[in-house]
Design brief:
single chain, about 250 residues, alpha+beta, Lipocalin, Serine Threonine Protein Phosphatase 5, Tetratricopeptide repeat, 2 domains, 8-stranded antiparallel β-barrel, two-stranded antiparallel sheet, 7 helices, 10 strands, about 25% strand
């Protein structure tokens, strides 16, 4: 559940017009399980990569970007640890990372961490802190009963940033959308929204005891997702009752 950042950056660095390094800025996987940040430290281009996986594995790498022999290499310079090297290849608007030394990189990362992936530029509005601000604006409008405006905010967030939002945050946003639809007198739309969540197949709150095993969640995922799942079933019950009363 990484929040990934991007900003307009310095133009890509090239050697002899052949090898080009990533532009200064922030990149993310889709969905947002890893982030890659390229920055300058004086004349040296540096990188920082953070990733996670569904089983709770995590990874944090940092070091320098080196160009040579027709390749772009991200090389760690962390003390007291073996050098982990990743090759970066341009792919569309983004960069795909390839692990060059699996054994060395495992000293830095869990076995299933997402460090070999396609990293794409992330719009400013989709940064984690900006998404949080957007959802805070949604809550302000919701609490003031400006339900139409609140729903428009969620529409904009999902339209621009949906590909970078991980499943847990997506289900939390689905609850925001569903309860707003309920307040707008749209119980059928509310049920359709909640029908896309990971607990759509759960019939009762009691079944949430099976949440971790049925969804194959890690311990950390289960702890984070349980309140979202509880809210989903509670909101679904409200919408079902409203629809039945019509």
């Amino acid at each position: 559940m990484m929040a990934l950042l991007v900003s307009a950056g310095t133009a890509p660095l090239a050697l002899a017009g052949a090898v080009v390094a990533p532009a200064n800025g922030h990149y993310a996987t889709q969905p947002g399980s890893a982030e890659l940040v390229i920055s300058f430290d004086g004349a040296q281009r540096r990188f920082a990569l953070d990733g996670s996986s569904r089983n709770g594995s995590s990874c944090s790498l940092s070091g320098v970007i080196q160009l040579g022999a027709g390749r772009v290499i991200a090389r760690t310079v962390q003390p007291d640890a073996p050098v982990c090297q990743l090759q970066l290849r341009p792919e569309g608007d983004g960069w795909r990372t390839q692990v060059l030394d699996v054994a060395a990189c495992r000293q830095h990362c869990g076995m299933h961490s997402e460090i070999a992936a396609l990293f794409l530029p992330l719009p400013d509005a989709c940064r984690w802190n900006m998404r949080e601000q957007t959802r805070a604006r949604f809550r302000q409008h919701y609490e003031r009963r400006n339900y139409e405006q609140a729903l428009q905010i969620l529409d904009g967030l999902e339209a621009e940033c949906g590909g970078f939002i991980d499943w847990l945050e997506a289900d939390a946003i689905a609850n925001d959308r569903a309860i707003t639809q309920f307040r707008l007198g749209q119980p059928a739309q509310c049920l359709r929204t909640l029908g896309k969540t990971r607990v759509a197949g759960f019939s009762s709150l009691e079944q949430l005891e099976q949440l971790r095993s049925r969804l194959q969640l890690s311990r950390l995922e289960h702890q984070a997702y349980l309140p979202v799942a509880q809210a989903t079933l509670y909101n679904r019950n409200k919408c079902q009752q409203a629809l039945a009363a019509r």
